[in-house]
Amino acid sequence: MALHTDGTRITWIGLSINLLLGVVKTFSGWSLGSKALIADGMHSLLDLLTDIAVLLGLSMARVPEDEGHHFGHHKFASLAKFFVGAFLLVFAGGLVVSAIFDFHAGVDAPDAGWAAVVAVVSLIIKEALFWWTRSVAKQLNSDLLMANAWHHRTDSISSLGVAMALIGVWLGGETWAFLDAAVTLVLGCYLFFEAFKIFRRACADLLDAAPEQEIVEDFREHILATPGAIAYHDFRVRRVGDVFEVDLHLQVDPELTVEKGHEIARDVKLCLQQIHPEVAKVLVHVEPANKEHIIERGISDLEINSEP
Questions:
Q1: Residue 121 in contact with residue 44, Cβ under 8 Å?
Q2: Do 176 and 265 fall within a single domain?
Q3: Which of 206, 228, 258 is the last residue of a domain?
């Protein structure tokens, strides 16, 4: 519970910072005549929506199973991550389109000196928030928080691009005003690429796609290490929000009692969850490990002679 509180707290801190930065950058951009700074401020205000989505995902994922949701509410985290990725895609696409239009239409030089100072301050604050949120996300093993951390990083990179463009305009005057559009175009392409990765992973989670093969193999290696586990098959893993669910068919000595077979299955489950706290559920179906069954279906560390 304390770890989840850490995730909620860092998200509330991020929400407050995004609100403050968004208002300051938007107002400063309007006062100083910098469209790039206004866009950067709108980016911070857009982050408010993703912070709210993350808070919703974190809170709903902890709600226990009920009559309407027999498998719990963990997918709310995946759904929130889906919207985070979608917001980023829309914003990044807008940056690219805006930069292309600015190249054709041309831009006026803003009061670049003070605008650059505002952008640099925003860069420092959002980069610090990125590393803080990333640290909490790694501690909680939370994809949702990690997606939000990268959203903070995109905002800091946005401020970096704006600051570089404004410094260039400040030093070069009207002849360097094109830097605003150039940096925005590069930044937009980078943001779109990162947003697509977040969005694609969220879609995979919602569609119950199998996780990375390294994760599956890491889970597998703890099954046959359990005393009494002879073989297994139909091993499946899916990501549900920030946790995993595993189910498998476990083959044990056919001479064992039902109670003993159940005990071995419980040991497999406890071993997997103790080593991997990110595994929320393990469903084990116990079967007899007869010779034909193992040869046809089982994955075993035993050498089995198929000859009669």
A1: no
A2: no
A3: 206
Q: Which of 176, 206, 236 is the last residue of a domain?
A: 206
User: Alpha-carbon distance 6 to 139, whole Å?
Assistant: 10
Per-residue pLDDT, 306: 42
Q: What is the pLDDT of residue 2?
A: 46
Give the neighbor-by-neighbor strand order of the sheet with 279-288.
Answer: 279-288, 243-252, 231-240, 299-300
Is residue 307 one of the residues assigned to a domain? no
CA pair distance 61, 72, nearest whole angstrom: 8
For the four alpha carbons of 91, 149, 195 and 62, in that order, the dihedral sign comes to negative
> Cα 15 vs. chain centroid, distance in angstroms?
17
pTM above 0.85, yes or no: no
Query: Among the listed ranges 16-30, 47-61, 239-253, which one has the minimum average pLDDT value?
Result: 47-61
299: pLDDT strictly greater than 80? no
Strands 231-240 and 299-300: antiparallel
Alpha carbon of 276 to those of 158, 210, 223: distances in Å?
Answer: 37, 17, 13
Average predicted confidence (pLDDT) for the chain: 78
Separation CA 77–CA 134 (nearest Å): 17
Are 171 and 53 contained in the same domain? yes
Q: Give residue 297's pLDDT.
A: 63
Domain span holding position 202: 2-206
Bridge partners, 286 (sequence order): 250
Mark whether 120 and 8 lie in a shared domain.
yes
